[in-house]
Amino acid sequence: MALSERIEIGRGERPAALVIKGVRVFHLTTGEFEEADIAIASDGVIAGVGQGYDGMREIDGHGLTAVPGFIDAHVHIESSLMMPSEYEKCVLMHGVTTCICDPHELANVVGTDAFDFYMNASKALTMDMRVRLSSCVPATNLETSGAVVTADELSKWHGRHPEAGLAEFMNVPGVLFRDKEVLAKLSAFDFIDGHCPLLSGRDLNAYIAAGIRNCHESSIPEEAREKIRRGMQVFIREGSDERNLDALMPLMTLENSPFLAFCTDDRNPLDMEEHGHIDRMVARAIAGGVSPLVAYRVASWSAARGLGLADRGLIAPGQRADIVLLDDFEKCSVRKTIVDGIPFDEIHYDVNALPDASSFKNSVKCREVSASDFTFDASGRVRVIGVVDGSLVTDALELDVASDDVLRVSVVERHGKNGNISHGFVRGFGLKNGAIASSVGHDSHNICVVGTNAADMACAVNALRESQGGFAAVCDGRVTGLLPLPCAGLFSDKSADEIKRDLRKLRESVRALGCILHEPFLQLAFIPLPVIPHLKLTDCGLVDVDRFSFVSPSLN
Amino acid sequence: MALSERIEIGRGERPAALVIKGVRVFHLTTGEFEEADIAIASDGVIAGVGQGYDGMREIDGHGLTAVPGFIDAHVHIESSLMMPSEYEKCVLMHGVTTCICDPHELANVVGTDAFDFYMNASKALTMDMRVRLSSCVPATNLETSGAVVTADELSKWHGRHPEAGLAEFMNVPGVLFRDKEVLAKLSAFDFIDGHCPLLSGRDLNAYIAAGIRNCHESSIPEEAREKIRRGMQVFIREGSDERNLDALMPLMTLENSPFLAFCTDDRNPLDMEEHGHIDRMVARAIAGGVSPLVAYRVASWSAARGLGLADRGLIAPGQRADIVLLDDFEKCSVRKTIVDGIPFDEIHYDVNALPDASSFKNSVKCREVSASDFTFDASGRVRVIGVVDGSLVTDALELDVASDDVLRVSVVERHGKNGNISHGFVRGFGLKNGAIASSVGHDSHNICVVGTNAADMACAVNALRESQGGFAAVCDGRVTGLLPLPCAGLFSDKSADEIKRDLRKLRESVRALGCILHEPFLQLAFIPLPVIPHLKLTDCGLVDVDRFSFVSPSLN
């Protein structure tokens, strides 16, 4: 019996399943260091912290510091482009042992099967991947998604999985104006994550009074401070595109620490490799003058308690043995991660238990396109989507169509619903030749293509049709780079290494076309997202987000 | 619909049910003050905090400071000697809007009916009285209790009330030595409160690893610090007898604040009137140099989160409108308490909804006694229970029976089980004449009587038999003071004012007998408790608590 074993181990009456010997434990409660052994029971729970514990297996912890496993409070795993098991391997290297995942991207393509997929994955993994139910599928009625998830479906799902909260409630106007379907969704859940960029004053009060507990969209300190004052947990986000740590670092005080958490939201595998994950956020915070107690609390304990998880976030008896062993405490350099009592390099995957993504293949259902599909008349002044490097917010520009770097952008409906192809103009990619296309196109995930000429745009879209999704670069009618993402057009079933290799090649191909953006495919993927200001293009047309309505590209 | 109303009020689209206008809100998140209106919806939830809210009713908050309602993290309401509705009235005056109650005393007399009683009371009250299920009834097998509550009964109860946690697990040896019944109890609950005075090292690890989350028995800082380090929530207790605030005040730092709470455990009505409640603990902490942010956090937010209550502890949208309005912030002087959105002086009790304690009457089932029942031979050296004013811990003295202030003490079984009468000696009461008796006798609540002569001891016991329980003082064969406690021999169904009046009279009567103790009936009531060191007397005999076995009073 687990309880009996824990008590026996705690008392030192029997050897632990695993002991980390002589490690310097950093206590997130008192802020003290303690030289101690950490004794772990066979159920992955810490049974004792102190002197003189013996184990059936022992890890030498001398010279290392132990902190609780990190928590990514909000992530779309699809953005890693990986299967959940590959994702787990990548983030465990960075000390992340719990993530709260919102299958919003997959759900927009395949509906509630997305919830099943990640729920099943969660069972097969060692890290704790907690699934939230995506609240806004589709995000708006200005686009064509692959699926619709109703309040009724969410309620039924929640009935079967009462532990699953509702994911980021991005339909802010729906809350404020008390849309019936929105109220039905909110009423069905106890735990609701938020998404309310720049919301303030009475509207913020109303949004929180609706039961929404947190927000990961704060980008300036006063915004975050108001949200904390109103009782929200503020998740400090560092995605591959949106990066808020530097701006919000002044908030990382001991007073505020219980009301903060870290999250990544959307982060691609190259970015993880090159810039780390939560570990790097901790290190940057400490380097920026934040006290280590605050930085490490925010990375684990604060997130856990804010998310209602009482069983993790401390190195103490009764807590999950999610432990990060650090070579350097202030630099947060991870030597080894113990997850649920298992050293991360010893996890064995039961291939049969891992979820199968094959049913998500063949999701790119658009017809074969030709250059004529991307040929349209334009002259004089036009509305142009101004892409800003490193931001999802676009400028709404008005320029002469012949201006420098004004390229064509189109969105091709790919769920087999209506065959829409919409057109607009974009500035900021800097392409001199060819075209690039992506079947990841938030949030409805139609194909977005930017190009210097119609023929290459058609070629890029057809390449994705052929590969069943992914990122493609085309030059002079030839595919020069391709990362296939055949699972729902969103992620790959290949290994992380293969994906990263393809991504690196693709990066080179796009640079060869003249592209000047740091993450061109991320920027491309967010052009169709009509919930982020100011000008966006969905498969239904050009959207003035500030007015939440369609506008013509032409200003003549 | 509640949700819709909250959103409308939050946005200022409709008047709130109640607005506290222009109050200075103290934010337990950031530590800031904010001059604001607090808008409350008709369901007792805060809908908005900010400027310009209007309400159907308004309270002028100018010149007052608003803090979240206080939480008593662990209390035996029986010790207030009052019915729950009278108790509520008393503590609301001190800003207490939530209490976690353990019906341990009543359960030891009447069994699981005690849970029903407080559960039903909880529904009829406005404050949130959360019932825990008493875990150790009886506390030991060294005494005769009125009832036994098995693991099986606890599990069934928990099945019907999944929100009810398990109350203070005082059977520490049962945990450490893995008693089968103890493990069955622990396994059945997610939330388990602790009780582990002076437990340390590996035994503390084992106790916490068994799933026990908090402890209210810490009396010295290093003890409390170790418990916090091991992940426990430490409840700082100020009971009428055990008082730990002064000793533990050094722990009240910003670092530690999330891991602390306040509780009263056992507090009688005169003490509440004369020394206040949680309000007074806050004031004393601030006067002692603790930062107000820490003191107020510990009084509400920290307790709430440690107890798993996410819906209170902040003045923010979506939180319960449990609000204390203070005249003086640093002195914590309560002007008015709002509980669940209702000003405390406007609560109307539905008499029919209040629980009925009449079935607990006639619980004193001992036979009529006479002087001969308290006459026994004693000479030479004897074991003497040394009572220490203001402490439940007794000294184990060895004295000549004729020494100064060595009085006779007896415990009379009163549940009609076996008619036991046991005898011993006690020092510290200072009685010169007469006898005092109590049907409150922790934890089995047999009658404990101390006297200068056998006739008065018999008279005192018979007086309690007549009154069906209570506290009695007798002098020269005459009852000189009596507080009847006819409900299970533990509490009264009279008003708080009547109880206090009787208590004051009784206090005078006991002083007239020469008694020198501050709280003689509390000290009397704890003489039978064989889980507190060092020498105690149950109805079964004299107990050497350190050896957990019976010993003879005589040393000859």
Describe the overall structure.
The structure is a homodimer of 556-residue chains. In chain A, a hairpin with a 2-residue loop joins strand 23 (470-475) and strand 24 (478-484). By secondary structure, chain A is α/β, with parallel strands linked by helices. In chain A, 27% of the residues lie in helices and 26% in strands. In chain A, strands 1, 2, 3, 4, 5, 14, 15 and 16 form an 8-stranded mixed beta sheet that branches. An 8-stranded mixed beta sheet of chain A has the order 18-17-20-19-22-21-23-24, sandwiched between helices. The N and C termini of chain A lie far apart (77 Å). Chain A is globular, with a radius of gyration of 24 Å. At the A-B interface, helix 1, strand 3, helix 7, helix 8 and helix 9 of A face helix 1, strand 3, helix 7, helix 8 and helix 9 of B.
What key phrases describe this protein's structure?
homodimer; 556 residues; alpha/beta; eight-stranded mixed β-sheet; 27% helix
Main beta sheet strand tally, sense and closure of chain A: 8 strands, mixed
Helix content estimate of chain A: 25-40%
Q: How many angstroms separate the termini of chain A?
A: 77 Å
The tally of strands of chain A reads: 27
Percentage of residues in strands of chain A: 25-35%
Q: State mean pLDDT of chain A (0 to 100 scale).
A: 96
CA-atom Rg of chain A in angstroms = 24 Å
Low-confidence stretches of chain A: none
Question: Helix count of chain A?
Answer: 17
Q: Which term fits the overall shape of chain A?
A: globular
- Determine the most extensive contact between two protein chains: A-B, 61 and 61 residues
Structural class of chain A: alpha/beta
Quaternary organisation of the protein chains: homodimer
